[in-house]
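Suppose you are handed a protein chain with no further information: no name, no annotation, nothing but its sequence. What can you learn? This example shows the usual starting point.
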Amino acid sequence: MLLAMKFKVAATLAAFASPLAASVVTPVSLAPAATTNVAETVQIAPANFAYRLAGDFSKDTTPATAPLRNLRLDGGLSIMKRQVTAAEYAICVNEGECPALASSAMAADRPVVGVSWRDATAYAKWLSRKTGLSYRLPTDEEWVFAAATRANDDAVPLPEASDDPSKVWLARYESESSKVRPVATAPQPTGSFGANENGLLDVGGNVWEWTDSCFIRAKIEANGTTRTTATNCGVRVVQGAHRAYMTDFVRDPRTGGCAAGVPPANLGFRLVLERAPGIGLMVARGAARLLAGAGIS
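A reasonable first move is to predict its three-dimensional structure. Written in structure tokens, the prediction is:
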């Protein structure tokens, strides 16, 4: 199983090192959105949706296709309309709250990329403190819900009742290899890949996005239920043209983490707004800012 996990992460890294998969959304001609300090959020109403469980699954000791579940987010979801830009992330860096990135030659109005899970989480915590609201990375379930028809269910059909693990690994390898295609990898202006039916921009474009979901290994019981046997939060689920798994990169191995190094150059993020303030609170904050600007305390 350890070998299978290493293969899964290695295949994911190979896919990120190369351009996006063939299922990438075709760019459309849209003007870049104006850069703001905080990205606009989209409120998605509660709804049912189909969700393919993330992770490695087995049944009767044999690798199995992840189960498909019907889920519902009863409270709906408030999520950023677009990905966080390089300019927005740079403000957090300049204030000493976010780690500086390996590459500083990114267009200010385009998605910030080359960020680790820790970088994205640091930005969410900083933005929460700055605004008084609560921002965080979406779970994989939330991302699929928000992505709607842009979420790609790319479950690998596995050989049934096979006692030969090599056949299963070969099927997975062929599936991962088929996703790698030579397309432009540089982040494009916001809106280049259009909006989905929920109003989210660039979902499934050429920038993958972090989620907060940990990699799991689970068994499928005879009655169809699943039982988690291992959870590895050193590896997170990432989403984009297809689902993948990414190690928690750190730049200094002495600080801990799953792997030292630099995250892929086409990996960014958008955030969920955990709660919306009441109108009274928003008015009070607005008045406080006006008074502070006028020098009144």
